[in-house]
Amino acid sequence: MSSDGWEEVVPEPYEMPEGYLNNLTDEHQAKLYKMWDAFFSVCDKASGDKDQGATGFSEDWGVDTNAAKSKMGGIGGASKMLKNSGIEKEDDAKAAAQARSEEANMEKLLATYGPEALRNAFWGLCKRDNPDITMLRFLRARKWNIDHTTAMMASTLKWRLDTNLDSLLENGDLGNGKEIPKYIENFDENGKVFTLGTNYKNQPVMYVQFGKHIIWAQPQATTKKFIIAHFELVRLLVVPPNDKIVLLFDCTGFGPSNLDVTNFLYILQCLQSYFPETLSVLYLHKAPWILQQAWHLVKWLLDPVVRAKVQFTNHPEELMKEIPPEHLLKYIGGEVDVEFNWVPPEEGENSLQEEKEERKRRWDNHRRLCNEFEQVTRHWVATEGKEGSEARRVLVKKLRVSHFDYEPYWQGMWVHHRNGDLSMKNPGMIRWQYPYADGKKIRQVLGHESSRKTLVRELQEIAAGAPVDFAEARTRDMLKDGSWGKWDSCEDLPAPPTGFQDGKLLHDNEFAGAAALIDVIGLNGPETIDEAKKKAPKDGAAGEQQQQQQQQPARAVNAVPVRGKPSSAVENGTTNGKAAPVQDGKASEKAKPAAAAGVSDYGGDQQEKVGFFGSLKKRIVA
Length: 622
Prior knowledge:
Elements: E1 7-9, H1 26-45, H2 66-72, H3 74-84, H4 91-112, H5 115-126, H6 131-141, H7 146-163, H8 166-179, H9 184-188, E2 193-198, E3 204-209, H10 220-233, E4 245-250, H11 261-273, E5 279-285, H12 289-298, H13 304-308, E6 310-313, H14 316-319, H15 356-382, H16 389-410, H17 415-418, E7 430-435, E8 441-446, H18 452-463, H19 468-481, E9 499-501, E10 504-506, H20 512-517, H21 529-535, H22 543-551, H23 555-558, E11 574-575, E12 578-579, E13 582-583, E14 586-587, H24 592-596
Parallel strand pairs: 1-8, 3-4, 4-5, 5-6
Antiparallel strand pairs: 2-3, 7-8, 9-10, 11-12, 13-14
C-alpha cells in the first residue's frame, strides 16, 4: 500500500508472440538484416534537396462545403465513397494497387527530399522506441516482403514529412488548442476521446464516445489533425516491447448526425498505411443498425488484416475477453468507478521550448547517437549479426534516455503529462488508477525495465565494464527483491560503480568522483569510466567536494530535465549548465526544493493530478 492510500500492482510482462522483438525465428532475423540494408540504400539514393518545411501540412484535410458534407455521413455517403474510391474490392488486387501506390510515393520521396531529411524523419518516427521494433512493425504489415516493406516505409516517411506531423506534438494541448479550431473543446474537454487502463496484454485502451461526435461541429481539418496527433501521442502510453493499442468506440446514443464515415475510415486508413501494426483490436460497442450497414459497405476499402481487427460487441462480457473487468469503466459494464474530468493546459507548462540553444544541443547529441547506431547497424548487417549486437543493445538504451531528456525541450505537454499517468520524474513509467465503488483503489504501474531510472543505472554499470546481460539481469533481480526503488523517482539510484571484475561491480572510493562524472548519453560528460578517470580530479585534489560527489553521485550530469517555468528550473544556481534566474542576488528559493532533487516540475504551484484526468487539490513539496 502506498502512502497515499493506493494499492500498487505491477502486472506480469506480456510474452510477445513470434515475429516480435526478442522472439524472432532465423528467417525473421534474416529479414530484419535485409530491411535495414534496404533502408540504408533508400537513404543513400535520395537525391532531393528539400527538408521538412516550416510551412507544414500538405495533407488533404478536406473542405467544409455543402457538397462535401453530402458525401461524409449516412449510408448514402458510405455508398458514394465506395463507388468513387477507385479501390479494388478483391483483396489481392487491392494489395497490388497499394504496393504500386507506395512504390510511386517512394520515387517521389527520393526525388524530393535529401538523405538527411529521410534520416531525420525515420528517427522522428522511432522517437524513444527501439528502432528494431519500428522495422518489425513494417515487416509484419507487409508480410515480410522486403520490397513491399521498403516502399511502405518510404511512403510513411514521405507522409510524415509532407504533413509535418511532429509540429502537432510540438504544440501540445496548449498550442493546438490555440491554433486549431475546436481541437480541445470538441474532443478532449468534453470527454469524447480519452485513454484509461490496459487490456490483458498491458496495451492501453483508448475510449471514443462516438455518440458525442457531431460530424460538422468542427472543421474536417481539426478532426484529422486530432486523429493523427493522438495516434502518435498514445505511443507514450505503450510499454516496449509491446507496440499496440485497443480502440473502444462506445456507440451509446449514436444517431445519423454521428455517422462520420469519412473520418472513421481515415482512422483505419492511417492505422493501415502510416501506423502499421499499432492496432490490437477496434471495438464498435452497441453499434446501431445504421453504423453496421455503413461498415459493411466501406470495409472492402481496407486491408483484410485491419478489417479483421474491427469487432462488433453488444455486451460487456464480450469486451472482457480482451479487457479485465477491473480495468473497464463502470459506465460500459466494468468495475472502475470514475468519471471524466479534463485537466486543462496552463500557460508556461512548455517553457523549456523557449531554450532554443539547449534544445538544439540536445537534438544534436541525440542525432550523434542515431548516427552511431546507424554505423554500428551497417556493420551488424554486413556481418549478419556476428559483430555489433552488443553495441546496438547499448545504443538502444542510450537513444531512449537521450530522447527522454530531449522531449521536454520540443514536445508540448499532453493531458497524460498533466494528470500524472506519464511520470515526469522517471520518464518511461506509466501508471493507471482504478478506483472502485467499495472504496478500494488500485494503481497499476508499468514500464520499470524500460524507464529512465533503469536505463541510467544499467548504462552506468555497462560504462564501468559490465556486460549488457549482467546489467539487465540485475534489473530483474532488483525488481524481485524490492531494491529497485520508487517507481516515480530517479533519486534513489545507487552509486555508480567504478569497475567490473570477476562478475561483480566494483565501488572503489578512489574513483567515485570519476564515476560521478559519467553522463550515460555523453551530453554533459564522458560516457565511460576510463574516459571519466582522465577528467576526474587527481588524488587529494578534490577534498570535501569529491566526498560529496561520492555521497550523491550521478545527479549533476544525469538529472531529469526540469519542465516548467524558468524560475523553477534551478539546481545549485544553474539550469542545465546555464545561469539560473536570480532574485535579489540569489537563486529563487521557491524553485530550489524540486530542482535540488533533479526532478521534473510542471511550472507554478504544482498539484498532484491523479485519477481519470482529474486532480486532487494537494500540494506537492518536492
